[in-house]
């Protein structure tokens, strides 16, 4: 290990003028150990001396955690020893780390369960429990840099992403699926198990059988997320190459009558007049008269509904909030939902944020709408498709269709619903349509009424 700086206080604390080692106990071992920290007195008031004395004790404590706590603690200790060995500056430093590795391996192996004889030399060799041998082998591989767990850097990678919670969920499911495949195929779940595309191709070949209920479209999303993770690892030289690049499952061609579509006017009347809960009645009307996606609607706060304008949070490739005039048929709904509330309060408190950061705020609203839509016999479900052809996004398609049929200019419709406007003139140089132009577009769309 490298000598610590004189002011390094890692794993150290002062007690009555003397330094002592203090190591946090893993949460799952607190009840077993009986405290949240393990402490060892060093009997020195010199921080420099304490830094020289602490490491053997720290390694001993961490090795005991590894033996008691299992895989995660073993890997944490192995990675710490690998870091210390890489930073070692003298032969003595290397020897100290190697001794710690040897002691830990002996602890992991435990007592021998039998002996065996070498067929050539006749010398006896100890035999240990298979589980203990696997742990010790993995420990030594990690120290040697030959066994980096697949998810070793995944949390760090996820932390720098600026994507939707749904995409973060895809990342989590993708790496879990790869780990499961490794277990089921007796492949070490390490980055080093994928030096070339060979193992990656095997995974892709088995993917449909691994998850038979998922469509190729969904599985390809997981492959794209693995590719992005490997791309990130490649830039940091944790892997040699992105083995997932270009690997996809063949997706079935979509027939003309199997494309997602707008709601028909008959379906719209059913959705508007059906036995919906009050929050659902309001939700479908806002969706129909803005063409907005579900999550920005459910995320609206009182401050986002001021001055006769909605201010929707950015979606997809939008770089800023999008302002959309509040339709005259929505004024009463917004007045009722904002009355007596603070500016930061949500207008849809019925659907609070989910506990999981991997789910969008609209997660529950999506399920409630799907159940409501199905109760009315609306959906156009097709076998093998993840979503019905008519879904919440169909409100957006319906709004765009009705705006077009009302002779609204296409570039104004694009601006209202947040689509990229075509061409350099409108797409790059224009600051966007005036609010009155957007209001004419919105007001041109009217909710259908029963005959």
From TrEMBL:
Full protein name: Integrase
PROSITE patterns (UniProt xref): TYR_RECOMBINASE
Record-stated family: Belongs to the 'phage' integrase family.
Molecular function GO terms recorded: DNA binding
Keywords: DNA integration, DNA recombination, DNA-binding
Lineage, top ranks: Bacteria, Pseudomonadati, Pseudomonadota, Alphaproteobacteria, Hyphomicrobiales
GO aspect biological process, one term: DNA integration
Signal peptide: none
InterPro entries hit by this protein: DNA_brk_join_enz (IPR011010), DUF6538 (IPR046668), Integrase-like_cat_sf (IPR013762), Integrase_catalytic (IPR002104), Integrase_recombinase_N (IPR010998), Tyrosine_recombinase_XerCD (IPR050090)
Tyr recombinase domain segment(s): 258-443
Highest rank taxon of the organism: Bacteria
């Amino acid at each position: 290990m490298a000598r610590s700086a004189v002011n390094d206080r890692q794993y150290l604390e002062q007690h009555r003028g003397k330094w002592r080692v203090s190591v946090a106990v893993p949460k799952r071992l607190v009840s077993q150990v009986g405290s949240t920290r393990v402490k060892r007195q060093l009997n020195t008031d010199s921080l420099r001396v304490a830094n020289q004395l602490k490491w053997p004790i720290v390694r001993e404590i961490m090795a005991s955690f590894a033996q008691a706590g299992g895989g995660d603690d073993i890997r944490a200790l192995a990675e710490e020893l690998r870091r210390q060995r890489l930073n070692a500056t003298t032969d003595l430093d290397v020897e100290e780390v190697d001794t710690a590795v040897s002691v830990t391996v002996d602890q992991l192996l435990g007592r021998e369960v039998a002996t065996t004889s070498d067929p050539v030399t006749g010398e006896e060799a100890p035999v240990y429990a298979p589980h203990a041998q696997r742990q010790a082998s993995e420990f030594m591989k990690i120290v040697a840099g030959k066994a980096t767990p697949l998810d070793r850097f995944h949390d760090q990678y996820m932390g720098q992403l600026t994507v939707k919670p749904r995409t973060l969920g895809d990342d989590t499911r993708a790496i879990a699926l790869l780990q499961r495949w490794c277990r089921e195929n007796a492949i070490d779940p390490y980055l080093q198990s994928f030096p070339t595309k060979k193992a990656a191709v095997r995974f892709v070949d088995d993917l449909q059988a691994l998850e038979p209920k998922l469509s190729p479209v969904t599985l390809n999303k997981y492959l794209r997320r693995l590719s992005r993770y490997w791309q990130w690892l490649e830039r940091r030289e944790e892997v040699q190459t992105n083995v997932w690049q270009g690997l996809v499952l063949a997706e079935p061609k979509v027939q003309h009558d199997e494309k997602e579509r707008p709601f028909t006017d008959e379906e719209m009347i059913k959705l508007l007049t059906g036995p919906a809960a009050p929050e659902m009645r309001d939700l479908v009307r806002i969706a129909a008269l803005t063409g907005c996606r579900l999550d920005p609607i459910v995320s609206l706060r009182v401050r986002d509904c001021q001055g006769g304008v909605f201010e929707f949070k950015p979606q997809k490739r939008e770089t800023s909030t999008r302002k959309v005039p509040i339709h005259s048929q929505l004024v009463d709904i917004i007045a009722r939902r904002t009355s007596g509330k603070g500016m930061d309060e949500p207008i849809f408190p019925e659907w609070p944020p989910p506990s999981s950061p991997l789910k969008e705020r609209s997660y529950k609203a999506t399920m409630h709408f799907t159940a409501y839509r199905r109760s009315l016999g609306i959906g156009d479900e097709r076998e093998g498709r993840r979503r019905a052809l008519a879904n919440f996004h169909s409100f957006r398609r319906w709004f765009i269709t009705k705006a077009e049929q009302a002779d609204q200019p296409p570039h104004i419709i694009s601006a209202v619903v947040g689509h990229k406007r075509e061409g350099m003139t409108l797409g790059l140089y224009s600051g966007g349509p005036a609010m009155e132009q957007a209001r004419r577009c919105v007001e041109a769309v009217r909710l259908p009424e029963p005959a």
